[in-house]
Design a protein that fits this description.
11 helices, 275 residues, mainly alpha
Length: 275
């Protein structure tokens, strides 16, 4: 299960963002095929191993993230906990479990990349990724603060954002397969994640002038020009943030159709594999 820890939090932010999504998607796809086809005859053994990995990922990913002072490292370590949640769908071993895993991975891609994109934008404009340096950003750049807030709340699984509905389906699929311990661990660690995500949001919205960081006080939208016209033209990165924010808000409203599509695809692929 090397893919669970396949990033270095000291790497450049775009690299960490890619590894936090790309390696996990590829690793889960490979693991699903291997465990369900090659090792289907020893299901109890690999179920037990994956349950251990899932538990450790959820617990230690969140506990380590609490003590981080860099928002990039928080997102990096929280991605370890996210993979623990996703593994519940794989361990359940049912069509519903695989569908919920696939759907949550889709939602996770948008909300995680959206959060990293906000961090990259702030880093390019200020040169820092320390949480304390985001202090008061809401009053200097409301749109970037709002976008980061939406992505973080979705990652935390706060309703009515898409991450909440994705976790509900994952935990429900695990509960139906009697994975009670994993579901309880997932619920408890989700509460822990709410703490450090809300801590970031609180810093973003601080009103006290003396607490506003020097980076935010000197914050500028574009180092190239102070022209309002340039500020209104979204860059490719800002456009990606818009897409991720929209997905983090509205994908939850379309969960049933997405789940149904995933289930139909899985059933079709299963039939083709058998034939």
């Amino acid at each position: 299960m090397i893919f669970l820890f396949s990033f270095d939090s000291n790497s450049p932010t775009p690299v960490v963002a890619f590894l936090s999504v790309g390696s996990k998607a590829a690793g889960l796809a490979l693991a699903t095929r291997i465990f369900t086809i090659v090792f289907s005859c020893v299901k109890p053994e690999w179920h037990f191993i994956l349950e251990i990995f899932s538990s450790f990922s959820m617990i230690f990913g969140n506990l380590i993230a609490i003590n981080q002072t860099s928002i990039k490292r928080i997102l990096a370590y929280s991605s370890i906990s996210q993979i623990g949640y996703i593994l519940i769908g794989l361990i359940s071993g049912t069509i519903d479990g695989y569908a919920s895993m696939t759907t949550y991975l889709l939602i996770y891609t948008f909300m995680n990349l959206g959060a990293f994109a906000c961090v990259i934008i702030f880093g390019l404009r200020t040169g820092t990724d320390q949480i304390r340096d985001y202090s008061g950003l809401y009053f200097k750049d409301p749109w970037l603060s709002f976008s980061l807030t939406v992505c973080l709340l979705s990652l935390a699984g706060i309703p009515p954002f898409a991450g909440f509905f994705g976790k509900v389906y994952l935990f429900w699929s695990g509960w139906n397969q009697h994975l009670y311990l994993l579901v309880y661990i997932g619920l408890i660690t989700s509460v822990i994640s709410v703490y450090y995500y809300l801590r970031i949001i609180k810093i973003l919205t601080t009103r006290d002038g003396k607490d506003i960081s020097i980076y935010v006080q000197e914050y500028i939208f574009s180092p190239l020009s102070n022209s309002t016209q340039i500020l209104l033209i979204p860059t490719n990165l800002e456009f990606a943030v818009i897409i991720c924010v929209i997905a983090s808000i509205f994908l939850g409203l379309a969960m049933n159709p997405i789940i149904n599509i995933a289930q139909e695809s899985l059933v079709s692929s299963t039939i083709l594999s058998v034939s």
